[in-house]
Amino acid sequence: MAKAKGKQGAIELGPESDPKILFSNYLKECKLIGIEPYGPLKDALTNDENPNIGKQLVVLPQPGGEVLGPGGCRALVNAILNAGDTSITKQVPFTAMKEIRICSSGLGDAGAASVASLLMATAQKRAVDSSDPAAAKPEWKLDYLELVGNEIGRNGCLALGRSLCVGMNKTVVTLVLDMNPLGLDGVSALCKGLSTNSTLKKLSLKHCNIDEQGGKAVGQMLSFKRLGLMELDLTSNQMGGIGLGDICNGLEENASIKTLRLGDNSIGQADNDLTALQQFATVLAKHPSIVAVDIMHNRIGTEGGTLLLPAIRDNKQLTEFKVDSNMDGALFKSLFRVTAKKAGKKGKKKSKKK
Question: FRET label pair with 196: which of 13, 170, 175, 181, CA 20 to 30 Å apart?
Fold first, then answer.
């Protein structure tokens, strides 16, 4: 077994935290599946100079076009779960990983389903010797999952949603699915699962092809009392006024959201846009927890901005409110605000001389 440096010298790592054992298992899984190992994983899991080795896994495409792919993702997940080698009598999963970031790696729905199987496994007790309670219920550390640009659609979202619904994964607090073509079917499948999740705090769905009909699924998710989501980023979709109105319906029942980002969502000055903006202002004015809103790059103009003004006037806890400047200058100054960063301590005050 490998050893890690600690305050009291070298600490022997077990299979639940030794990345070299994880890589060895990954190679075995690739052989079982019949695929070539993804080269960069060797450096990611065996390079001792990496301070985050075994805790953070970052997978990116190679300049030559080589990617992890769905098969490689399946092999990696099997290695983490230590589920593929049936010759091992006491299989111990690799539970030390805190962050998984797999970007532009061609996972598709099949790869997303493999990741979902990992999330579901974190909720399962294992049938092992009862004298070892730690093995019966492994202590999973995974709290951050990022699958950006992986061509994940409806079926992948369905699997991820099911793995994050009530009774399933309780460790992930941040989920980033930016630049995946979720569309209406994908976002509906995902939101249905997430609506009963009380532990996920941050969800990012930027550039996910969510149109005006997708706002209904988001709104329904927001309306569930069990939802624990605090930050939602829907930047650069196409929800328009109709989608915004459906989101408002959910916000009326919501008490958890603190930050909402709706920049670049085709919200303009059409009748349905203005109706939705008025509803948005009404909801924001009385929402119990929201403190930051971003609707930049939506050309709502002076008329739309005027409709939002009551939200700023009546909700004093709104410390960040971002809008486009394509409106009356005085109105823009009244609406736009950014949370001021706390200045660091420049030094200790000199004591007064006696």
Answer: 181
